[in-house]
What does this fold into?
Amino acid sequence: MSDVTRATAAELGRMIGAGEVSAEEVTRAHLDRIAAVDGQVHAFLHVDAEGAIAAARAVDSARARGEKLGPLAGVPIAIKDVIATKGVPTTCASKILEGWRPPYDATIMERINAAGMVMLGKTNMDEFAMGSSTEYSAYGPTRNPWDLGRIPGGSGGGSAAAVAAYEAPLAIGTDTGGSIRQPGAVTGTVGSKPTYGGTSRYGLVAFSSSLDTPGPVTRTVLDAALLHEVIGGHDPRDSTSIPAPLPAIVEAARLGATGDLSGVRIGLVREFAGEGAEPGVAAAVREAIEALVKLGAEVVEVSCPHFEYALPAYYLIAPSEASSNLARFDAVRYGLRVGDDGQHSLEEVMSLTREAGFGPEVKRRIMLGTYALSSGYYEAYYGQAQKVRTLITNDFKAAFEQVDVLVSPTTPFVAFPFGSRTSDPYQMYLADLYTIPTNLYGGPAISVPAGLSEGLPVGLQIMAPTMADDRMYRVAAALETVIPPLTPPALSGSNS
It folds into this structure.
């Protein structure tokens, strides 16, 4: 494996800016890495080699002209295939959007391009971001670089696997119930969910509009903060975007890297203690918390009594919003069209297209959401779930009056074998047990490597108040000083 592909994004940005290596050389090294290992990992649905080389050459030309480059200029990045990319296929890993090339870029893509970053391609995911294992992709599963017989998490398993396998130093994911953090935990990468509204949803194909949050997937906390700074900030095209500047997240990550957490109060959620994390996961998280104490943090127990209702509330709210959002896939405006032969009515064409185009998990959630929103059931299900959401938000607010951040395991278990949970949706949904409360609240959270259990990565989740993303970056970067980034076993044919 090339030394270039092992470098962090911050290191690559510095090297390119100093002229020690060209952006084109860096890009070609990562494209070579993709060619060498992605046949095993299947992190990518589409690789845009031609576009990547052109973007890299533009950065090199700008440097040659003496233009000032940003800290991530020339650095390659992979994009979850739920983000609109102009002229580049955007499928949401669904047959219903197969081959669709958007006529516009999402806001975060505009900002990535403006920063001079180089898009390598689009990564695999659970269809329409609905899943916890990337087994629900219409184009086949992504495999975990730590063990090719195990899942890479979901829904953003492709982004996490690409970063873990050194196919890209950076990636974009989206987090609706844990889809950045849970893949980060099981692949040994850093997955950061910003405050809801802190990163624009314009150009993000919607799953659950009150929950969806784009964010960084990286190998280090500093890299996550640098990428967050690029994509974050107010966007007038997104009605839920927060009209306020980002916190000083890069500075917070650098402060945390000094390893000093004096004065920081960390809360352990009492209700999570008995929620059945695997013994190895619980042990790794305990050791990580002990390490934070040695760095000067004070740890106290806090109660969030309504967190136990987060999972059922989420699986009413998110499917209800999905039912509404996915109604736009009607075989008329774009995407797949089945039965358009003059023999079927428009209604029949819509039905045939959705039957052929949507996978089983998407259909399950659409049906659940449609039922929850139906006449006579709305208040009993969706309305009650929103009341629970308010109670969970109040739990967070009360907790943050006592502590600066909350911590927990990111997910109750390490990466599980393919097929072991697909027959029982509830067991699959448990992967997001610890991550969902933060989405319902809207605050930021990050998963950072906390060690290994049975040779597989474990993640520690750090949660902060809304618009206090800097707090989670400080604590995460401090933990990184004692638990360094994890390296997966070498993939065959990877020259590593």
Observations:
- The chain is about 40% helix and 15% strand.
